[in-house]
Request: fold
Amino acid sequence: MGAGSSTEAEREPLLAPTSAGTTNSLPVNSRVYGRRWLVLTVFSLLALMQGMVWNFWGPIQNSAVQAYGFTKSDIAVLVLWGPVGFFPWLLFMWLMDKKGLRASLLLSAFFMLLGSTMRSIPLPDLHLRRWLIHGGQFLNGLAGPTIMSAGPYLSTTWFAPDQRATATAVASLFSYLGGATSFIVGPLIVPAPNDSQTGTTTAAPLSIGFIQNRIQLVMYAELAAIGVLFTAVLLYFPSRPPVPPSVAAASQRLSYRSSICRLLSNFRFLMIALAYAVPTGVIGGWSGVLDMVLTPANVSQMDAGWIGFWSIVGGCVFGVAMARFADSIRGMLKLILVLMLAGASLSSTWFTLTCLSTITHLPVSAAILYTSCILVGIFINSSVPIFFELFIETVYPVPEGITCGVVTFLGNLAAGLLLFFLTFYPTNLSWLNWCVTGSCLFSLILVLFFRESYDRLYLDVFVSV
Reply:
């Protein structure tokens, strides 16, 4: 929709609309299939594993330093490979637009399988082993453009209009849930070195070999799970159903080149894209090194893992609930985002000032750190599917995969820049907390001044009746 609204020709459906007397809200030639839940499940589980592999090293950074000789900067680089993997996003979006979701997802799953295999090879040479681990993390990052962008495309292709936001939430948030799972699986299975935990100075030191074996166990388990999911995609994962589920799913879309030009020339889209990319990218990078952020506050590796876990899980649960609410009451996406970002701004300010208690003299306790940090994750992570739906409504008829590919690239670019600076300033991380607070306030201001529109909703509600 360029700088203005889409034309009537662009809104013209390919399916024949229903007659005025029918009570069915779907076009007569549309249909939803039960297999859509299988497609959504396979995609979501693959997203779960991609998120787990990406966030594997941050929650066990003390153990990784002890076992493989990584430095703090190395841990930041391992997390950085996720955003770096987004640089060829145009290739994956082109593949999705021309060949369908199956081809793009199959290639992404292959990269995940190859990367997990590389980092699981038990070489005795630690120098070569570190290189293989870096290579494996980079290949897993290459799966990110499809995994993190295709949720709205999948929901539009397979689900009816009153289920789209919910399906988008599930497909897009499972990657975050994978990152949350790593916060628990890693610290539970991989023991922390004794000098990184409070109250364990008298315990017998753990051997490096024992820590390496526990890390290897988790990597083997993740490799097996990815292998099973790759086989499932290879055997059965159709790009689209035989009959589309809605008028919007069957409508003519813009070409790949026209879509990119339309997005880059649409000021309203760029405005809301920045509102999404800056806070999600900053908080994504921040949560990837949350253990490093909380260590100065005397928070152990295990406790930092639980904080990260509940902040992301809370965001996923709240995000699905808000998406379901958006499905039932349409046209409220901007209001939902304003409330979420206001909550994120307040909670991030609370957390940042608490971490500076020597200056602010605010009370510091485990409960306060838990609550403020978890609230930041809940408000920001739950906003992701709402943002995605608003993007699609704003720029329709640009294809969903291309639209979300652009914004997820921008989000990962923000995370990558943050982690890049972290490699130079890995000691005093108070600046990182201020970046989180500033990004939430910046996004809130942009959303407040954003003028929303619902072109796709117009097509489904008015053209289909």
Q: What stands out?
A: DSSP finds 22 helices and no strands in the chain. The CA atoms of residues 254 and 344 lie 35 Å apart. The two ends are 23 Å apart (CA to CA).
